Amino acid sequence: MKYPVISTRGVVVFPRHSTTIEVGRKSSLNAIDLSIVQHGAKLILVSQRDIMKDNITSESDLYKVGTLVQIKINNELSSGSKTITAHGLHRVSLSKFNFNNGQLVEADATILKDVATSRVQETAAVNQISEILENLLDEMQSMPKSVLSSLATGISASDLADIIAHYLPISSKQKQIILEELDITKRLSKVMTFIRKKTDMSKIDKEIDSTVRKTLDNQQKEFLLRERLKAIKEELGEISSKDSEIDA
Length: 248
Hints:
alpha+beta; Methane Monooxygenase Hydroxylase, Chain G, domain 1; five-stranded mixed barrel; single chain; 49% helix; extended; Archaeosine Trna-guanine Transglycosylase, Chain: A, domain 4
């Protein structure tokens, strides 16, 4: 089925998650109007490969997997831009992109379904991720604590992978990799890999901060000791001078 398409710069939306974005390009504003009039406020969000590119003139500028979303217009700005909330419905593969006067209009969308391979592997991966998150949630400020509580409600492995990917502070290209992975076990594995990379970087940053602080602390201590020694010498010098005056 064909849907209007909005190309996004650095924004990847996952199913069952909402994102607020500002839309300003003419083709994107047209897509919003078309979605409301003809498609029940549904359209496709898909990331462009080069976020610096203003005009999308070829399907090669876009990834082939995006998200079917339900939109709601929040604000219409004086500049003509609009802010919308997009709620992810399904992963979709895109084909047969239509362009009109060099502007992206719509594309055929096929809903993609999760691939479940091994329930045992899924469960093991979920348990590993849960353990990692419990230990590192305080360090990952972008990850709300509700993610952990959702584990107790029996969230599916697929939803868990997507909810973590939604909040994980990784690049849009890395999020796209997770979006395109249909195999649930592999998706969980990729999420776990990105979590570990982020935590490793966090540890390195902390070590650097600690080293810098120690260096600054040592320099501060040396400075204070030198100043104190200087003051003591000056004080001793004054005492010595006064003693000489008395002796004279």
